[in-house]
Structures are given as structure tokens and as C-alpha cells.
Design goal:
This protein is of the alpha/beta class and about 350 residues long. It has seven helices and 19 strands. The protein has a six-stranded mixed β-sheet with strand order 1-2-3-5-7-9, with no helix packed on it. A three-stranded parallel β-sheet has the order 11-13-15, with no helix packed on it. Strands 4-6 form a two-stranded parallel sheet. Strand 2 and strand 3 form a beta hairpin. The longest helix is centred in the N-terminal third of the chain and has 18 residues.
Length: about 350
């Protein structure tokens, strides 16, 4: 994953800034003192005085490295050690203890560490400083607060569970680390403010309804290794204008792009052999489609595609579902000339 420098410069809260860096570069960044210091110098747009303080803490006091070493301690020991680090840092630099604690804790939370047992951990859950709930071992993100505007998933997370971000209507930015391999069903459903998202190539599986109702979504980068795109994956993504699917995709679910009223273009990989019913229904701006090597065009496939001007249907299509082209205004100079055993139209 490459760093988004424009986004990084919007993060004036040091905890959020450090957390984003860790998501991109991994926790080992805390051991690379010069690199971390340079990133703060180049990208952090908060107060200049604060910038100098945090760079000094890294280069002269080894604060980031000491915080990284907390990862080797059990959770119960971290707070005592962190407080001792903060006290020594403040004392060595002739500053008030609360300032030393603030700087230290920013590094701690930037790394995604918790300093004490959180509410719910007895039930096998762990809550970070943002209120997001993870499994106790930090490998599964269970839920994120509904009022969250931006969030960087903890490095080391493997699974983002079903509905983890569902109805986070204020969510605008999500950063997913390269440790994540799967996203659950309805994971970002109804995130109405989410405009773009990049999913790392480590992700191999994404559940149904993943972006259902993400009405502001304009841009998405899907992982190259994904094979199946499930039912209602982008249903209701009204702002989505074009999308390119990874070459490895072999099947598209029902209503995958239904209600994407501004979709103008889609490139479907030639390896796709199955597309579900109502796949493009309601795509009012869609003008042309080249279908891959499929055998079945399902019910309501292009229903309501009032701007559709051109479509190429493969010769091995044998079945045309009811209302497949309902309300389409395709002109028919040659259309529906019977071919082979299919006994119906070839456009």
C-alpha cells in the first residue's frame, strides 16, 4: 500500500497521523527512527512546535522504539511501563509530566496499543482508543462506532467482520492494512459519506452486500486476487460512474450494480462465466456493455437501462430471462436475429 500524502496532511491529530503511518508502513516503522522523523517533518501539518517536539522524542529520546518494545509485554504490564517512560521523558526534557504523558500516549495509541484492560475483554473482546471493537487477539475487527468519520484499521487485523462499518453514515476515509485477508458481508453497507476506498491485494474474499447503499462512492480499487463478487455488492451506489473489475474475477452476483444510476462504463473480465439476475437493472446512464463468455442472461438483467445504446452478447448465450431488456430504448435494425439452437436474438 502506498501512502496518500494528501490525506496524511489532513491529519493534524498526532495519534491519528501516527496510526495512519503504521497502517501503511507497519509497526516496524517505530524502529526506523530517521524514516519516522522524516515522515513527520514532511507530512505533518499541525503546529510546528509540536512537530519539533515529536521529532526530538524520536531521535534523541528513542521514544518510538521504547513504545514499540511494549508490544512484547502482556497487556497488564504495558500501562505501568508506559507511565514510567512518560515520567522519564518529561524529567529528561524539563517539561510537565502531563505533556510527557500526552506525547508518550500519542505514540502508544498510534501503534494501536491499549494500556489497560478494556470493557468487554472478559467476553473475548478488546476496544481501542477510538471505540472500535476487536477480538481479544486483535485479529478481527468486529465493529466501529457509527459516528466515526475516518478510521485506520489496526495493523495485524486479518478479518473485518460482517457489518463492521455498516451504517457509519459519516465515514469518509478508511485505511485497510495489508494484513487483512477477508471482508465480511455488508461490511460497508450504508456508509453514505464514503467516496473512495482502496482494498489491498492481500484481501482474497469479500462478502455479499459489501458496499450496498454507499451512495457517495465514486472510486474503488478492488484486490487483484478476488474471484467472486457477491450479491448486491454495489447496489445503490448512485455516484459510481465507472468501474474496472480485476482480471481474476469469474462470477458476479445478483443485483451487483443494480441502482447505480450514474454508472456509464464497466469493463467485465473475459474470465467471468456467471452473472446473476438484475445485475445492471436501474443503471440509467449505462450506454454500452461487452458481455463475457456467459450462457445465461437473467431476469431484469438490463431493466431500466434507458441510455443503453450498444451491447455485444456472446454467441453461446442460450437463455434470456424475462424483462431482461424492459424499458430499454435500444434501436433494432438487426437485433434479435435468431442464431444456432438458442432460438432468440443476437444483438
Amino acid at each position: 500500500m502506498q501512502i496518500d500524502t494528501i490525506y496524511a496532511r489532513t491529519l493534524t491529530d498526532m495519534t491519528a497521523f501516527l496510526r495512519y503511518l503504521v497502517t501503511v508502513y507497519g509497526p516496524e516503522l517505530y524502529k526506523e527512527k530517521q524514516q519516522l522523523s522524516n515522515l513527520i517533518a514532511d507530512l505533518y501539518t499541525g503546529e510546528e512546535r509540536q512537530k519539533r517536539l515529536y521529532r526530538k522524542a524520536i531521535s534523541e529520546d528513542n521514544l518510538s522504539l521504547r513504545i514499540y518494545e511494549l508490544t512484547r509485554k502482556v497487556n497488564e504490564e504495558r500501562k505501568v511501563t508506559a507511565d514510567a517512560i512518560a515520567f522519564r521523558f518529561a524529567e529528561n526534557n524539563f517539561m510537565r509530566e502531563e505533556i510527557g504523558r500526552q506525547v508518550t500516549y500519542d505514540f502508544v495509541y498510534g501503534l494501536g496499543l491499549q494500556l489497560s484492560t478494556s470493557v468487554g475483554e472478559d467476553d473475548g473482546e478488546w476496544e481501542d482508543c477510538c471505540g472500535a471493537v476487536y477480538s481479544k487477539d486483535r485479529t478481527k475487527l468486529i465493529s466501529v462506532p457509527g459516528d466515526c468519520e475516518e478510521y485506520a484499521v489496526l495493523y495485524g487485523t486479518v478479518l473485518i467482520c460482517d457489518s463492521a462499518f455498516q451504517e457509519c453514515s459519516l465515514l469518509e476515509k478508511v485505511t485497510i492494512p495489508s494484513t487483512v485477508t477477508a471482508l465480511g458481508e455488508s461490511v460497508f453497507a450504508y456508509c453514505e459519506s464514503l467516496q473512495s476506498i482502496e482494498i489491498p491485494n492481500s484481501v482474497m474474499e469479500i462478502g455479499n452486500h459489501a458496499f450496498y447503499g454507499c451512495s457517495a462512492l465514486q472510486r474503488i480499487v478492488l484486490p487483484t486476487g478476488i474471484e467472486d463478487i457477491g450479491d448486491s455488492f454495489f447496489k445503490g451506489c448512485e455516484s459510481l460512474q465507472e468501474i474496472t473489475l480485476p482480471d481474476g474475477v469469474t462470477s458476479l452476483g445478483k443485483s451487483i450494480l443494480s441502482g447505480c444510476t450514474n454508472l456509464r462504463e464497466i469493463k467485465i473480465p473475459i474470465g467471468v462465466t456467471e452473472i446473476g439476475e438484475s445485475a445492471f437493472s436501474g443503471c440509467r446512464a449505462l450506454k454500452s456493455v461487452v458481455l463475457p463468455n456467459i450462457k445465461y442472461i437473467g431476469e431484469s438483467f438490463f431493466e431500466g437501462c434507458v441510455s443503453l445504446q450498444e451491447i455485444i452478447i456472446p454467441e453461446n448465450v442460450t437463455t434470456l430471462g424475462s424483462s431482461a431488456f424492459k424499458d430499454c430504448t435500444l434501436e433494432k435494425p438487426r437485433d434479435f436475429a435468431p442464431f444456432g439452437q438458442a432460438g432468440f436474438a443476437h444483438l
